[in-house]
Amino acid sequence: MRTVRESVLDVLRARGITTVFGNPGSTELPMLKRFPEDFRYVLGLQEAVVVGMADGFALASRSTSLVNLHTGPGTGNAMGAILNARANRTPMVVTAGQQVRAMLTMEALLSNPQATLLPQPAVKWAYEPPRPADVPAALARAVQIAETPPHGPVFLSLPMDDFDAELTEAEDLAGRAAAARRITHAAAPDAATVTALADRISRARSAVLVVGDDVDASGAWDAVLALAEHTGLPVWAAPVAARVSFPRSHPQFRGDLAPAIGPLGRQLAGHDLVVVIGAPVFRYYPYVPGSHLPEGTELVLLTRDAEEAARAPLGDAVVADLALTVRALAERLPAAGAGAPAPHEQVRFPESADGVLTPLAALTAIAQGAPENTLWVNESPSNVPQFHEATRISAPDSYLFSAGGGLGFGAAAAVGAQLGAPDRPVVCVIGDGSIHYAVQALWTAAAYKVPVTFVVLSNAKYAILHWFAQLEHAQGAPGLDIPGLDITAVADGYGVRTHRAQGAGELTKLVRDAAAQQDGPVLIDVPVTTELPSL
Which residues, other chains included, contact 7 with Cβ-Cβ below 8 Å and sequence gap of 6+? Predict the structure, then answer.
């Protein structure tokens, strides 16, 4: 008779999930024993880093990732990263070991007494199978839920004595059948709805497109680009974009909308119809009051997420597959006449200050050294405008940033992204504050020889918090500066090759050399000045 462990491994094989990200504890060892040769185990030194790596892996590989955590404490350590994965809409199955069933009632050491409550509401589904025989089918169901739009993490609590339990032939076949199921998610829009929206766009005096993360994530990049070029409409990026969903070098691209109500409304002045594609309406923070839209302006949201449509504060919505909807819309709209909108004037920043590189100067040097097909991971929150100004990313699947607002994503996600897309160079631009939220990822990169190029922009402060302190009139708040950090010494201790760059030319060369090699990670520390964003 076959065991639950054997059936679980077959479920994972059937779903193409053979990489496990984990930090094992005693309750996980029964699942991992006799680990098969066709699987890969990627060890992280802390659970939030483990989830962050799985997050980057899933996003870069367009697949579902698997995480193995240590009962309640490990899940607790990982919660911030799971929240980020939820915001990133990452298909991810998070498993956690549980005490043996015979000792759950007495809540013996390492029992997770309410295992399914702990990860909520960060996960789409949380479950502990009632019988060992239910584990394979529950795992298959978890994968299906994670892959159902909107994608997101799910959670399974698995008692440690389940894996050696034997299955009857019928139970084994039930697990195989559940794993073999395939569900296609491609909801086509109603023809009348598309026609009505096309008529609305045609009647508009000045319509505008706003694109969000799900354009890139859902594979609708080409369709949206074709729609924009067919209609000649200007295109904005939705606020706090975690992905690039429209070529930033395109003449119709206008830039990023502000993440605040009043400023965003003013940016859309002059437009009487806003068509939002694949973005929440809108991702606001901080609170700056004002009108959501200019007076007389209407909004329509195209989304795969019914909850996102429901919680939008204004406008109509169409819930359907983005690529199908956009292609159908383009077929019903007339081609633009001559005279496309003039290119958006890019924001300019100072280029040097007292011999220390400004963020823009450093990022420009980094971009000049990075290969054309670079997959960028960014976690330098105060320098996002400068990053986009320097890189002008114009290809799909080329940019990852956390949509969740919590730090700790960048370094870990970069390692996972390189494992998920090994044929692409990965360059991680990260602040000296941000990297210490997941600094243990450097060990995994070194131990597995993952050739990520980490570029740390060092200004010895949480610059984004200085900006918020100004905005919120909270000057004098403690804990905003972090002097005395030496990231190269830390990285050296983890076995990562390090450099400290002083000039733009040296930085460009270091990035070019690091991105061209396959011998493991390289970390480049570069001191920069502080420039605070503006709304």
Answer: 135, 136, 167, 171, 172, 175, 176
